[in-house]
Amino acid sequence: MKDYLATIVKNEKIAENIYAVTFLLEEDCKARCGQFGNISVGGTHLLRRPIAICKVEGREVTFCYQVKGEGTQKLKTMGAGMRSRILLPLGNGFYIPENEQKIALVGGGVGVFPLISVLREYGKTKEISAYIGYRNQGAVCGVEEFEKATKFIAVTDDGSYGEKMNAVQAFAKDLAMGNRPDVVLACGPTPMLRALKALVEAENLPCYVSLEERMGCGIGACLVCVCDMTNGQKARVCKDGPVFNVKEVVL
Ligand SMILES: Cc1cc2nc3c(=O)[nH]c(=O)nc-3n(C[C@H](O)[C@H](O)[C@H](O)COP(=O)(O)OP(=O)(O)OC[C@H]3O[C@@H](n4cnc5c(N)ncnc54)[C@H](O)[C@@H]3O)c2cc1C
Ligand code: FES
After folding, report:
1. Is residue 242 assigned to a domain?
2. CA–CA distance from 129 to each of 52, 97, 126 (Å)?
3. Residue 159 forms part of a structural domain
């Protein structure tokens, strides 16, 4: 992990309220899928914003972000040539062992972005089915990446793109048709992950989820990001996660 000085190469709208920003780092960076960066947006915003690494190629790293509050609003206004500090790579990321060949990706909302990095890392060596839920047609993004998966099922909350259902329902439907993965990797809003947890427990499927918590330091020091574990202990999402075995976390 390093605090990189990064220069924006481009910062473009890719869907309704969603942007992709590419930074050029001072030197090459190696990152595993599911890891994240903590991005400084400068000004009065002292706390950095944690965003999943979507793509890393040599010195270039791309993040996709939804404009939510002041920090991401500020990031949206930053153009090519502007500089920022980014701590990366942070967190543990997703790791798929050799013996797990059939992978299901289940993602919703901003949770689709770390799953794109899984596809980029494992797409050529694993059989990947992606079940991706968007709010509506305007929010659809990353399609050109997900279409590289063995199977890609996109759904929306209002039925304006694909079937009207959420990502967990799309996965459950395919599962009922006999398409059973070796492991499920997921990221999305907590209610989505809760529904997925119930499904994988009932189906006895291994599953790893990437959690989103409010963060401060991003490196395990401030304890802002702690979550409850099923064994009664606490874990730091930034350092012990953000990826956890779904059995181990309270959702
Ligand atoms: C590991 C990880 C990966 C993430 N990846 C992405 C991604 O790829 N794309 C994306 O759009 N968003 C992602 N998020 C969520 C993103 O960090 C928040 O949406 C963002 O920090 C909101 O900042 P803001 O200043 O615009 O909003 P505000 O609500 O004004 O933020 C105020 C403070 O709360 C924190 N905060 C607010 N919401 C969240 C949240 N959901 N998670 C963590 N901190 C939050 C901010 O860091 C800031 O310190 C990720 C979060 C985590 C923890
Ligand atoms: S954000 Fe500081 S410990 Fe996790």
Report:
1. no
2. 20, 17, 10
3. yes
pLDDT digits (tens, 9 = 90+) for 120-179: 999 999 999 999 999 999 999 999 999 999 999 999 999 999 999 999 999 999 999 999
Q: Is 226 in the pocket of ligand 2 (CB under 6 A)?
A: no
Token pair, residue 129, equals 């089915």
Helix (H) or strand (E) holding 21: strand 18-25
Ligand 1 centroid to residue 153 C-alpha, Å: 26
- The answer for 70, left when phi > 0, alpha when psi is -120 to 50, beta otherwise, is alpha
Whose atoms come closest to the Cα of 38: which ligand? Answer: 1
86 shares its domain with 177: no
Rounded CA separation 51/154 (Å): 23
Q: Which ligand ends up closest to the CA of 212?
A: 1
Q: What DSSP state is assigned to residue 136?
A: S
Which residues form the domain of 200?
102-210
User: Which atom of ligand 2 is nearest to 218's Cα?
Assistant: 1
Q: Which ligand is nearest to the CA of 91?
A: 1
Ligand 1 atom at minimum distance from 47 CA: 49
pLDDT at 42: 81
pLDDT for 45 beyond 80: no
**Mean pLDDT score of the chain:** 95
Can you tell me which atom of ligand 2 is nearest the CA of 221?
3
Question: Within this chain, do residues 108 and 186 fall inside the same structural domain, yes or no?
Answer: yes
Q: Is any atom of ligand 2 closer than 6 Å to the C-beta of 41?
A: no
The total of structural domains in the chain comes to 2
